[in-house]
Amino acid sequence: xxxxxxxxxxxxxxxxxxxxxxxxxxxxxxxxxxxxxxxxxxxxxxxxxxxxxxxxxxxxxxxxxxxxxxxxxxxxxxxxxxxxxxxxxxxxxxxxxxxxxxxxxxxxxxxxxxxxxxxxxxxxxxxxxx
Length: 130
Description:
The chain is mainly α.
C-alpha cells in the first residue's frame, strides 16, 4: 500500500529519519532569528537605562539641580538677612513712630559730624540700623 493508493503513508515511510535540510546556513539563520527578540529587548533596555542616568531628567541632571537648589537656598538666606537689616533701618525712620535718636544719629553719620562730648559706638555689620 502506497501513499497514493489510500492517502495513507506506508509503514516503511513512517520510520524514515527526518530529512536534513540546509546544513550550517539554515542552522545559523535559526540561531539569528532566535537572537533577534532578546537583542531588541536588550537594546531598548540599554537606551532607557542610559537616558535614566545621562538624560535631561536623569540622575546626573538631578544632582546638578540639587546643587543649584542648595546654592539658591544659600542666596535666599543671605538676601533675607539683608532684608531684615533694611527693614530694621526703615522701621526706625518711619513717620508714625520716628525715633529722634536714630534720626539724629543718621544725620550725624551722613554729615560726618560728632559732638565733642559724644562717644561713637559702632554696630556689627549685620546689626546696623542703616
